[in-house]
Amino acid sequence: RRSRGPLGLGTELEAIRDYLPDDDIRQVNWRATARVGSPMSNTYRIEQEREVVLLVDTGRLMASPVGDGTERTRLDVAIDAAAAVAAVADVVGDRVGVIAFDAALRRRLTPRRDGGEAVVAAIHALEPAPDESDFELAFRTVAHNKRAFVLLLTDLLDEAASRPLVRAMPILARHHALAVAGVSDPAVTEAITTPAADATEAYRTAIAIDIEASRRRVASVLGGYGAVIIDVPAASLPRACVAAYLRAKDRARL
């Protein structure tokens, strides 16, 4: 299914023609009007193809297991989600690219039509690095690109550890449609939802509640910058990321 794009003036100049009474005043080409001596209007073409940029965090925190009984790391699940979004972007006709980063840029692929296969080839063999992730570096790499749906695949951390991410958010939030996706911790969820049988489990539950509250506060701060927050179990992450991308497209946020 292909989206026909948002209604409006469009973004690419197509032609200059005589002014019509129903034209928006923003369409008037004042230089052409002065040159020919009568009102002239610009006509614009609404772009059908949009851009999708996948930011894959490969820092040390992405090496932790997802805790679902498998040996998969958070990075493994992030790569699965990136591949799913790239495949859907190919189907709907958008351009897709990827940036993998930790303290430095590990992979960089500019958005392109039918780029899903190239995205998978670029990231499928990535391994976590023992470094802190430089979110500002990654964000500045795409900050001045054409408006895009930017999906950051990372770990939604506690408030202290998330400060570098929060500080970097304004770099992207001003210009792009942004989603931040991470894997929820099943151990934390289980501790919160399972009644405590003794004092030890009660302490465990209290710690889990504190961890979850901290993550929610981080999500609230990121949401204040306009980001869509995706915090779901590992098995649901690819589907949730695809859904967020398609919602942004349908709502003409791109």
Portion in beta strands: 15-25%
The sequence of SSEs as H and E is: EHEEHEEHHEHEHHEH
Class computed from helices, strands and strand pairing: alpha/beta
E-strand count: 8
Summarize the SSE layout with pairings.
Elements: E1 12-18, H1 30-36, E2 40-45, E3 51-57, H2 74-92, E4 95-101, E5 105-113, H3 116-123, H4 135-142, E6 148-153, H5 163-173, E7 177-183, H6 186-193, H7 199-224, E8 228-232, H8 237-250
Parallel strand pairs: 3-4, 3-6, 6-7, 7-8
Antiparallel strand pairs: 1-2, 4-5
Description:
By secondary structure, the chain is of the alpha/beta class. Helix content is 40%, strand content 21%.
Summarize the structure.
The protein is α/β, with parallel strands linked by helices.
Give me some keywords for this one.
disordered N terminus; alpha/beta; 8 strands; 254 residues; six-stranded mixed beta sheet; elongated; two-stranded antiparallel sheet
